[in-house]
Amino acid sequence: MRRILIFLLLFLPSVSQAQSALYDEMCDPLQAVFCDYVRSSSAVNYISNSTGQYIGTTINHRIYGWGFYLASEGWQSFGQFRNGKLMFGLTMLDGMVKIGSEVNYVVYSLETGEISRRHTAEGDVPLEYPYISTKKTRSPYRFKKEKYGNGDVFFGEFYNGKRHGYGVYCWANGDMWYGQYKNGYRDGYGMLIKPDRHVYYGKWVGDSKVDE
Prior knowledge:
This protein has two helices and 16 strands. The protein is mainly β. The chain has one domain.
């Protein structure tokens, strides 16, 4: 049974309604299967070597599950990993951010905050409104960083001025959250990393973690 579930998880991703036009995501039932498998088989580890640092879950001493990776070159990835590779997540690069899977993803320019590239299994897709702005109309899609008076920081996707898509919220106390936002709230699957390197992952609804 586990083999069947893993096969479905890895090879039959579904498209969510929230950002379906931008990238493929696992639907909620498959997200739950992934979380259950990781929870039953993994340990939470801190890995540091010449290539970078990782905080998150591992299986058989391999990076597997939910985590955060900071490469020695400076780029960083948040999301879901399988055997050391990012399956789906958010990667901050020099001047840009990539969100999605290895094949289906979008790239935002950190300078403009706009989508600069969208890629699918068929290759790059031409960008038109509403994904990019026109001379008369601004695109509702944005990626930006916000700093708040209490010391908290958020960087992630916005749609029509609200957090919507994927993002990372860093509290002043050291807590860090990555995951899905809908209409301004944490809503969907994600992970919370505490300063003591404990990782909590699962589903959030309306900014609160829920039991599944």
